[in-house]
Amino acid sequence: xxxxxxxxxxxAGLSAAVAASDAGARVTLLDSGDALGGQYxxxxxxxxxxxxxxxxxxxxxxxxxLRDRVTADTATEVLTEAQVWAIETVEAVTAHVLIGPADSAxxxxxxxxxxxxxxxxxxxxxxxxxxxWHLPGVYSAGxxxxxxxxxxxxxxxxxxxxxxxxxxxxVAQSLTAAGARVLGVYEAARPAALARGWLPRPHRLLSAxxxxxxxxxxxxxxxxxxxxxxxxxxxxxxxxxxxVEEVVTARLxxxxxxxxxxxxxxxxxxxxxxxxxxxxxxxxxxVGCRIGPDRFVAVDADQRTSVGSVYAAGESTGIGGxxxxxxxxxxxxxxxxxGRSGLRGDLRRRAATTEFARRIEAxxxxxxxxxxxxxxxxxxxxxxxxxxxxxxxxxxxxxQTSTRSLKLTTRAGxxxxxxxxxxxxxxxxxxxxxxxAEDTTDRRPLAAPVRLGDLAALAPEEIS
Length: 464
Hints:
FAD/NAD(P)-binding domain; 20 strands; 464 residues; alpha/beta; globular; 13 helices; five-stranded parallel sheet; 20% strand
């Protein structure tokens, strides 16, 4: 029986695991979280369940169906709190895993070698820096939503949601459901940009019509809660002594430069910001997958990467939402298990979700003028407290074009998050784009922090 390893148990990973099992494979499904569902279906812990948790999620029945399938399937082994900290290829792809609560000592070490691997590790928020974004009370939108969904905790009483992209709408809804008052949703894209991105050739979006009720639900929720939705406006500064006390918003021109005289100040104790998503590429890069010029994992029509036995699905291949993740997961799981037929409908649906992803980028993609709201003392790397002025001056003085060299010179990107928050911004601000795959800020030989004690406890063959 063919053995398929699926890394990540969000929509793409769950879908891949079910499809691989249906095609006759033995499946090992790993996820670093303490429950299945990933970031999209992040839910309350079993000791504090909700009587109507389905109201907190879209597609909850789909999640329950996938969860029940993988947990009841005797051919599928499910491991949660299973962190893949390294992956390698010698004769086959081998994942090195630590099992147990994150950051705890004495986690169980395990290696998993399979005939085929599906990487479905998703993405995390990209947040553009602005003066004051390092203050307590500034959150990525994804973190705020995770707290609201997974703990029913609102990050503040008076909250501003800002950035770009459709993700801002469910974040605002999650916050109000958790008890926060959302003062406004500020979308940086102007009406003209949204029209250029979404309106041409509307027939190409017919397969994504199920998004319409979802959008209508967000609109109705915002109207009931009287949440303002402002286009072409952004948070350009957060102010406060020990935490956020107020935020400054401004209208933007088409390139996202703040227009003088349009600034408005709001009293707020939290601001949640997202400017799209950055794929998690540590494992694909470590295993040798080709990364395309768009900085996503390159896959063929079967979701196969440049490494023959490795497949990728979900947001590591492009930001297309849950529908794209589900259909890509089905294709990847089926092909990884050796299946060769029965995917015609999924291939058509994937074409529609690819179009949806392209439109998101066209309408909401980051524009270059955002750098004009930075000041010399704006912190760029929060872990190492590296400000924009010194970073820019160091890059200019040394004429550095290597991301690695810039990091070593300034320490930007060398902190605890290992450039997950600031890496793409460092490259944009300094022009030090990666010249080679090994020079990218997405390359991390250790995909997650590992205690020295855990490494010391490994058997020699596990670290060879």
